[in-house]
Specification:
The protein is mainly alpha-helical. It contains seven helices and no strands. The chain starts with a helix and ends with a helix.
Length: about 140
C-alpha cells in the first residue's frame, strides 16, 4: 500500500515539475515518509548519505541542479539500499539525458531553442522514476 502511495506522490511531483518547474516541500516530505516506511531504514548508513548531501549542496551552489531536485534525491535515498545507488543514479542520468535531447530537439524544430533552454529541464521526472525503482528494489 505504501508503495502505491509513493508512486502516486512521485507522479504528482513529476507532473508539477513538468508544468510549473517546482517541487514543493510537502510532497517531498511524503516521499521521505513512504520511503522510510517501505524500506524500514534497515541498511541505512550515515557516511555515504552525508557525502551525497554535501555533493548535492555543491551541485546546487554551482547551479548544476535546482534545490527541489536535490531535496528529492535526498528523500528517495533514505529508502534506497546503498547497493542500488549506482543503478538509480545511472537511470536518473540516462533518463535525464534522453529528456534533454528531446527538449533540445523540440526547441530546434520549433525554432524556439532559447526559450526551451531558459525554461530548464524538469529533472524531477527522471528522479521520481529512478527513486521509485530504487525503493522498490530495496524492498524486494
Amino acid at each position: 500500500m505504501f508503495f502505491c502511495l509513493l508512486i502516486g506522490i512521485s507522479g504528482f511531483i513529476a507532473y508539477r515539475d513538468l508544468v510549473e518547474r517546482r517541487i514543493g516541500n510537502w510532497p517531498v516530505f511524503f516521499i521521505v515518509l513512504f520511503s522510510i516506511l517501505i524500506s524500514g531504514l534497515e541498511s541505512f548508513s550515515w557516511q555515504p548519505y552525508l557525502f551525497v548531501v554535501f555533493a548535492g549542496l555543491i551541485l546546487f551552489k554551482i547551479n548544476a541542479f535546482a534545490g527541489g531536485d536535490i531535496k528529492l534525491v535526498w528523500a528517495y535515498l533514505l529508502g534506497i539500499d546503498q547497493q542500488w545507488w549506482s543503478v538509480v543514479f545511472l537511470l536518473i542520468t540516462g533518463l535525464g539525458g534522453v529528456m534533454a535531447v528531446g527538449y533540445l530537439a523540440y526547441g530546434y524544430f520549433t525554432k524556439n531553442l532559447e526559450a526551451v533552454r531558459k525554461r530548464g529541464l524538469p529533472y524531477g521526472v527522471p528522479i521520481a522514476i529512478g527513486g521509485c525503482l530504487g525503493v522498490w528494489l530495496s524492498s524486494v
